[in-house]
Amino acid sequence: MIYLLLSIVASTLIFITFKLFERFNINILQAIVVNYVIAFTTGIIAYNGTVTISELPKVDWFYYTLALGALFIIVFNLMAITTQRSGLSVVSVATKMSVVIPVLFGLFYYNESLGALKLIGIGLALVAVYLSSVKTNKGINIDRKLIILPILVFLGSGVIDTSIKFLEDTYVAQNDVPLFSAIIFLAAAIVGVFSLIFQAINGKFKFEFKNVIAGICLGIPNYFSIYFLVKTLRSDILDSSGIFTINNVAIVTLSTLAGIVLFREKLLPKNWLGILLAIISIILIAL
Asked: What is the pLDDT, as a whole number, of residue 140?
């Protein structure tokens, strides 16, 4: 249970850091690239074995993690574009609703149990995510011409979570969890560096040191959010469908409460209802 709690706290710290990005006018792409470099470095430091570069491609999970890392930054860019075109609420709902994909994967691929309490809990969790994420009275309004963007964010986020579960269960040895997490971030960092180079070639790159500091602050909790999630998936507290549901709902709830305390955000009645449903769903799934 401690790993799940630490994963939730680490992911909430990511939310808080992103909120501070807005306040200090941080260049998000630059900070994200630095963040991935720091997350990779943290994983290498945490790894208890010897890292031999020439031997890494021989590891079963190596090329899968490269693809997964590239998907990380692709989804991030899709989230940024969707936020600009359709708003933050759309991105938040699409990202958190994507929990449906790893949940279904766990139920069908791993034949995980689905009792009445768990089914109700998952249903309430999805409603809770929507109610907690939408910060306007009108709900979500998406231009039909742009509907593909949140769909891609939904699918990409879901595939990332599902892939982490599948890879850690199928290929990753117990002692390789820090290295596995680190290589994912290395691949994301490499793709991000090429993105910055492309910006520089087009004259759109302007370096500011505060973006490096921001990336460092983001990188450490980002690494541990993945590391502790993998450790949770390897524990026996719940099956993966329950873990992913509780993880996502708890992050939304804790992030919402952090927004109230730290940033004095005002919540609508439906946001409070979402928090209440989130707590009930966690209890039902845990039972």
From this structure: 65
